[in-house]
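4.2 Preliminary Data

To establish feasibility before requesting continued support, the project team ran the inverse folding procedure on a target of 207 residues. The structure was first converted into the token representation described in Section 3, and no sequence information of any kind was made available to the design step. The complete token record follows.
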């Protein structure tokens, strides 16, 4: 009886120990599989996130390009038609525009004019320039010339150019109505007035 009991005990404990070992091995395999999945998912998620950001930035830059072309094309028509030409175009501004300017090199013998946008992208602020074939000036909601000062020149960082800033409301996200008008009395200095194209966001006037 004693011998049989000892043998039964001897047989029982190895069986129990073997089950625990198998269970621990299965658990370790699950941990390894889970860790492997994480190693795949986490880098993929970062790559996908970066792809989404880059795609969003690309879409925004393309939208701004279309906005600039619409303004430039209508401005060209206004300038060559002459006063009292006036047109109002509807534009949808994206969210990522940090600032919007008109640049001009009015003192040079061959003046140049640009629309400039500072765009907030995933990699930082990107500056976009779009040339205008004709003289353009920016006006505020109070029908005054847009603000120009040395601080703005520093933001533009374009030597030899004057930099006038649109108000934030002019390029805030959403639909805007931009009045583009030929004006024969645009003032470029105390002595010089000439025909130019006035850009004036007038959504509030139409509501």
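Position-by-position output of the design step:
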């Amino acid at each position: 009886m004693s011998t049989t009991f000892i043998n039964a005990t001897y047989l029982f404990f190895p069986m129990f120990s073997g089950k625990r070992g198998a269970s621990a091995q299965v658990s370790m395999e699950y941990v390894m599989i889970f860790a492997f999945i994480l190693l795949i998912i986490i880098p993929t998620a970062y790559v996908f996130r970066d792809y989404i950001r880059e795609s969003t930035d690309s879409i925004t830059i393309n939208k701004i390009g279309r906005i600039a072309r619409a303004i430039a094309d209508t401005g060209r028509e206004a300038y060559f038609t002459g006063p009292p030409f006036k047109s109002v175009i509807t534009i949808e501004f994206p969210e990522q525009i940090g600032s919007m300017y008109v640049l001009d090199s009015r003192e040079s013998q061959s003046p140049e004019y640009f629309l400039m946008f500072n765009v907030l992208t995933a990699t930082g602020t990107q500056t976009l320039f779009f040339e205008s074939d004709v003289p353009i000036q920016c006006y505020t909601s109070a029908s005054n010339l847009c603000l120009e000062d040395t601080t703005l020149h520093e933001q533009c960082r374009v030597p030899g150019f004057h930099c006038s800033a649109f108000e934030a409301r002019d390029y805030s996200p959403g639909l805007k109505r931009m009045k583009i008008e030929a004006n024969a009395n645009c003032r470029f200095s105390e002595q010089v007035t000439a025909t130019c194209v006035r850009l004036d966001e007038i959504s509030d006037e139409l509501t």
